Amino acid sequence: MRQFFIMVVAFVLGGWNSAKDIGGVYHLISDAPALQRVTLEIEDTRVSGQGPCNRYFGSIAHSDTGSNNIQVGPIASTKIACPHLSAEHRYFQDLQGVSMVKVVPDGLVLTTSDETNLVFKYR
């Protein structure tokens, strides 16, 4: 919790300068049962986590076009079958389509270019 507070203070005072500043472990907030266990971990220039079925990993980069603009991907994952593969595929597509991040109390909102919001709570 202390780390999150420091991130929020840094963001408010001077903005964040890289994906490293939003580092941490997050849990996706969703009413969809298939998405209940989705996590996102951001560490330096890497993302990883648990999808609805599989572990995933990829890259994250701060964009030159603005302080809140980011690029995620490409995303790779393990290949374990489960009943929620379609939800997982959609989540991975959305994650790779993220173009903006907003720090909110207790988490992040990642927004895709088509304005889909992925809301994450800091763990």
Walk me through the topology.
Blueprint lengths: L1 H13 L9 E5 L10 E5 L2 E5 L4 E8 L7 E8 L7 H12 L1 E7 L2 E6 L4 E6 L1
Antiparallel strand pairs: 1-2, 1-8, 2-3, 3-4, 4-5, 6-7, 7-8
Structure notes:
With 123 residues, the protein is an alpha+beta fold. The protein has one domain (2-122): Lipocalin (Beta Barrel). 20% of the residues lie in helices and 41% in strands. The chain has two helices and eight strands, in the order αβββββαβββ. It has helices at 2-14, 85-96; strands at residues 24-28, 39-43, 46-50, 55-62, 70-77, 98-104, 107-112, 117-122. The chain has an eight-stranded antiparallel β-sheet with strand order 5-4-3-2-1-8-7-6. A hairpin with a 2-residue loop joins strand 6 and strand 7. The longest helix has 13 residues, at 2-14. It is globular.
Features of the shown structure:
123 residues; alpha+beta; 8 strands; 41% strand
Global mean pLDDT: 85
**Percent helix:** 10-25%
Order of helices and strands: HEEEEEHEEE
Give the N-to-C terminal Cα separation: 8 Å
CATH class: Mainly Beta
CATH fold-level assignment: Lipocalin
> Count of DSSP E strands?
8
